[in-house]
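Thread title: Can someone regenerate the structure for this chain?

I was given the following input by a collaborator and told the matching C-alpha cells would be attached. They weren't. Posting the sequence so someone can regenerate them.
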Amino acid sequence: MTGTKGKGKNPRVIAIVNQKGGVGKTTTTVNLATALAAVGKKVLLIDFDPQGNASTGFGIEPEDRKITSYDLVLSDVALAEATQKTSVPNLDIVPATIDLSGAEIEMVSLMRREYRLRKALDTRIAEYDYILVDCPPSLGLLTLNALAAADAVLIPLQCEFYALEGLSHLIRTIELVRTNLNPELSIQGIVLTMYDRRNKFTDQIERDVREYFGEQVYGAVIPRNVRISEAPSHGKPALIYDMHCAGSKAYIQLASELLKRERRLAEQLTAA
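Best answer:
Regenerated them for you:
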C-alpha cells in the first residue's frame, strides 16, 4: 500500500463522514474550513459529495466547476489543476458536480479502486495545513476512498435516537478500513449538531454520547440555527453571512478545540 505520510511536510487530511443525510455534515465542513482559514491556516476543501452542496455553499456556480473531484479520481488530473479559490482568504476548494454520482460505478473495475483519492493526494501541496473532505451521505466507494486517504475522521452527529444506531455502524466501518486499507486512520472527534435545548430528549442523547465516547466528543455543540440554514442560499459560509450568530460562534469554538487536539497530537508524536 503506497501512502504519503512521512514525506516531509504534508497537510493533515480529515474526512467529515456520516452515512446519514441531513446531519449537518456539509455545513460542518464548510464552516470548520472557514474558521480554520480565519485563524491563518491554509485549507483545501475537497467536495466529494455528488450533490455539490459544499461548492454551492461558497457561491461556486455549476458552470464554473470546470475541473472537479470527479476528474481528480477518474481522469488523473493533478490536485493543483482541480483546485480553485473561494471568496474566503486561505481557503481553496476542489468542487463537485452531479457527475461524481457515476464515479462509484466507473471505479468498480479499476485496480486499487479504494485508493484513487489517496493517489491524487500523493502530490499534496505543502502550502496547505489541512485538507477537509466532505463525504457523501453513504458508506460507498467514494467514502471508502476518503477514509483510505485520510489521517483522521470527524463525525457530525445529529442529536436524535436513530443517529446513535448509525454511529455504531460507522464506527465498525472505520475499524474495517483501519484493518484493511489505512492502519493510520484515527477518529479526530465527534461533534454534536442540530442541538435543540428545548428538547429534553436532546439532552439525553448528549449525555449518552458523552458517557460512551468520552473525550472523543467535542465540547462545542452546534445548535439549530436559522442563520446557519440561510447562509448557503446566499453562497456564503455562516461565519461570513453572520459571524455573531450562535451557530457561527459554535463553529469557531469547534475549530479552536480541533487545533488544540492537533497540537497535543503533534507534541505526543514529537515526544515519541
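The radius of gyration is 17 Å.
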